[in-house]
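Appendix B, record 7
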Amino acid sequence: MTPVQENIHPIFHRILQRADKEALLEQRAKVIWLTGLSGSGKSTIAEAAEKELHKMGFVTMLLDGDNIRAGINNNLTFSAEDRIENIRRIAEVSKLFLNCGIITINCFVSPTNDIRTLAKGIIGEEDFIEVYVNAPLEVCEARDVKGLYAKARKGLIPDFTGITAPFEAPEHPALTIPTHELEIQEGVQRLLDFILPIISNKN
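Structure tokens (predicted):
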């Protein structure tokens, strides 16, 4: 334990607990972690799913890679070390929302099994729902909605996942959504059908 840690005294045991928040919101909090290549459809599916959940009366939070990089993690690069720190911070923030009884939908490339295992360890295995938004590299590159693949091919973006940095497909995802085979709404419905029985706690 460092000298700084010796002077830290968390009060988690004295504040309202997750069960209190879940009872108020009539839902079960989970972290739904969408992983996949850039352009696979993570954000599109997450945005549509969140809107549907909102209509149903669920309280949600959507965390997206670009939004996080523009705010809380704007001091991080895309080096291997900073990628790990990026996910660590996201997982810690997700855990805060989890403890508030909120259903959190995360959209992050999170390219390796180790980095996703790190997130799962922080959040907790029972509360971490890994969803693989799967589309082949050539499909993602053809979409190239942000123009990132073109820049990476020109060497303008170093360590870009799928081009100059690896992506490891999840070994045992809770759900796989093959967006190259499904219409967007079909992918959204597949996600909703899977998570609704898990998060529903309506009296």
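Remarks on this record: The beta strands are 31-35, 60-64, 103-107, 128-134, 175-178. The two ends are 45 Å apart (CA to CA).
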